[in-house]
Design brief:
The structure is a homodimer. Chain A is an alpha+beta fold. Chain A is built from 14 helices and 23 strands. In chain A, strand 12 and strand 13 form a beta hairpin.
């Protein structure tokens, strides 16, 4: 176990210094590296493979709900950004501007997209003429740039990868339904792929997207009790359709502006996966995004037949669609155990001479560290698939139980302070006034607020001013 | 057939005005639209779906040859570009430069990547220490910007999507083998997925990539006899490894610079697909990249059971993995026939009351316009899969026969002129001197040159100067 200790020493203690633990694991497991330009990140093979798995799973859901993928240009005329007043106010300070091609100055500076509402609207105004063109349901996978002062890999980077859905609808009702539908798609995806329970709800007026009438989000609790906003869905009303003059001839023979929605999740989800599931040994990858779902480690590799059997198991599992890796390097089994624990591989499969003799493999689950058990080689692929599903369910249940035990219902500012200082979400009633929201944020650093869809009251009065309450709301400290 | 004529009138005559035909089909079939910034393009759902199919097929091949995907930042410090002299000379005039974030000027201007050799090298210099770290085989799917004066959708755009492979090797031999291996991967992919025969070979010194020791390419003949360079693979030697100080400790205990390779294909491939396969009616999509492989058109849709049967066929084909679309709109069957012919859907499936009575569907292949035949509904999915493979093979054979009939072996400048003026590739011997290359290019606009791997001579003397020849070479006019 000397090797295990060496590894644990390499990573900061998750209980004592969570931020340093995060930095240590993302770098040491080679998920990511720092890019040469401040605030940028390099996604290494192990990290990018997580993103590929996220993309594949989410893309299937986006298409199943009737959306088609498109690709619009990276560079947007600056004049577009200015057309929607709140939008430019929100994004102008952090946009990267292209001013020159080689030595030649451009006649108009170009914005490297921070998001694409404006350029989508420009194209929509050409494509939409009639109610027959609606709903228009498109999505793009792209890179965006938002210059951030404080950056952390995956969580907040100057450039990130994401998908942005953009849709147009003939009626407000249909657009509002799309807004919630896609939030629910994110919620289901987070549960069944990332093994993360999400709080879904509405952001306050103060927190909504620059240009939206309403913003909804999915929010996850990290292992330090902080909140991570993991995805958003915006009801944009006609705020962009009007300045971009998008109009359609409706069935009643009149021209109308359509109602618009946008929704997105990003490489930030990888940060959520890391911080919702890790432990003192490193990452815990949920099986359905894990780049390697099962790692095979041959024991006494020099003995006749061991490597051959390991190769055979690998081929069998790969054929069943399991993402499997065989580590046949000359590192010791102990070194390998620690390496793949740190990398969070959900299932370890040891195979040695005694296992072969007994017709079994020796298995160990990352989510139940230390427990070893055997499984017959006959039917191993099916056993592994069942185990991966069990690991997924256990990880989800563990994350849900952790979050539920860290939600405190509070009635006044003292209780609210105690709750958030104690690494919890505080659930309270709120009068809905900006003054109370600001006061709570400033005094208690509750940078996360989310009003759940379930508004069944937990009291009558605002946690801050004591006046009659309008909303139920979660308060937390945000990434 | 009145409708057919209407459509044909919408598209310029492919024999009389090929460039206009190209512009007409890419816009009218909604593959693409023009972006608001000059030279940019918007990939609409029908066009982006082609790219998704290309990505899926090629990505599988890139991974099967041992490469892993990564993602590196879009923005590169200008100082990196300058480190390799030929590289900066080649790219500096056409790079987009980010100089400001909002109102704040950056301390160093940033290049929006035109290609990523320099930033990969920066990261490689951190990641590579020992021969154990080699070969390092990575690839990224990304957008790049190269500001072009004359642009055309897919063929030459200010921004395009591509993959760029970047690899490092301990020996020159291994790097040279990788260069050719990936060219062969492209060639096989073009044949088996795009149904396009490629000429593979080496570019002249004059034409090689800025910073490479040698550039190899795949080149396809378009229907107007012009050449389209569809992909490149570059042997970079140690040209970047030295200025970026990438070094590894070799087995012999000494530090060495590794040898480097890069290779890429882009959304230009979609232009190749369009121009290698179309006809006077519009696009002809090769089945394995076609967004819709088979379209079902119900005939006498109002009759009982027709739509139900059409839905049933759709479900059966979709379940078998066929990309199928059912057009149940109230447009006439004739209108639909023309629409999907223009869009190049490989297979049309009509289903009407008489078909149902006979237990068949009526089929029509896009590659054999006009021919109708029936297939039993029993086992239709299998029949469709067989037909798609036959269509693919026929399209490849047709493109190959067309190209082979448009290659003329020439011995002197008169013959060379006659060949290229007659929309052919000219195959000749060449002395290898830049003077002859320049003369031929300037007098005959042979903007495409490619030296095939098969150098079995077609003569002894240079087509231009008459001196002893060194190389066999194809001359053509390029996109």
């Amino acid at each position: 176990m000397a090797k295990a200790n060496e590894f644990v020493k390499d990573i900061a203690d998750i209980r004592e210094n969570f931020p340093q633990w995060y930095t240590d694991v993302v770098i040491k497991t080679q998920l990511v590296d720092y890019g040469p330009v401040k605030g940028t990140m390099v996604m290494r093979p192990y990290g990018y493979a997580v993103w590929e798995n996220i993309q594949r799973e989410l893309d299937a859901r986006i298409k199943a709900t009737g959306h088609e993928n498109v690709y619009l240009p990276l560079l947007i005329p600056y004049s577009f950004l200015v057309k929607e007043a709140d939008h430019v106010e929100g994004f102008a300070p952090e946009v990267a501007l292209v001013t020159h091609i080689g030595d030649n100055e451009l006649p108009e500076k170009l914005v490297v997209r921070p998001t694409s509402e404006t350029i989508f609207c420009e194209m929509f105004s050409k494509w939409v003429q009639s109610y027959r063109d609606l709903p228009l349901l498109v999505n793009q996978w792209a890179n965006v740039i938002r210059w951030e002062k404080t950056t952390r890999p995956f969580l907040r980077t100057s450039e990130f990868l994401w998908q942005e859905g953009h849709t147009l609808h003939a009626t407000q009702q249909e657009a509002e339904e799309e807004t919630i539908k896609m939030l629910r798609v994110y919620e289901e995806f987070a549960k069944n792929v990332l093994a993360i329970p999400m709080l879904t709800g509405k952001k306050s007026e103060k927190e909504k997207f620059a240009g939206a009438d309403a913003t909804y989000s999915i929010e996850a609790m990290m292992l330090d009790g902080k909140s991570l906003q993991a995805g958003t869905s915006h009801y944009l009303g006609q705020n962009f359709a009007k300045p971009f003059d998008i109009r359609f001839l409706d069935k009643d023979g009149t021209h109308k502006h359509p109602y618009q929605v946008s929704w997105g999740v990003s490489t930030r989800l990888i940060g959520a996966v890391i911080m919702a599931h890790g432990d003192e040994r490193g990452l815990k990858m949920p099986p359905y995004v894990a780049p390697v779902q099962a790692v095979i480690i041959p024991v006494a590799m020099h003995k006749a037949g061991v490597l051959e059997k390991a190769e055979e198991i690998k081929a069998t599992l790969a054929k069943a669609g399991i993402r499997v890796k065989l580590d046949a390097t000359d590192n010791s089994p102990g070194w390998k155990f620690n390496e793949y624990e740190m990398k969070g591989v959900p299932l370890r499969i040891e195979i040695g001479p005694r296992d072969i003799e007994n017709g079994v493999a020796t298995l160990s689950r990352r989510d139940k560290a230390g427990e070893k058990f055997t499984a017959p080689l006959e039917g191993l692929a099916q056993s592994v698939q069942t185990l991966l599903q069990e690991i997924h369910e256990n990880m989800y249940a563990t994350a849900l139980a952790f979050r539920d035990s860290h939600v405190k219902t509070v009635r006044n500012m003292d209780e609210l302070k105690e709750a958030v200082d104690g690494q919890n979400f505080a659930l309270s009633m709120w009068c809905g006034d900006r003054a109370c929201e600001d006061k709570i944020k400033e005094t208690l650093q509750t940078t996360s607020r989310n009003m759940p869809f379930d508004q069944s009251p937990v009291g009558d009065t605002c946690v801050c001013c004591g006046k009659k309450a309008k909303h139920k709301i979660y308060w937390g400290r945000a990434y």
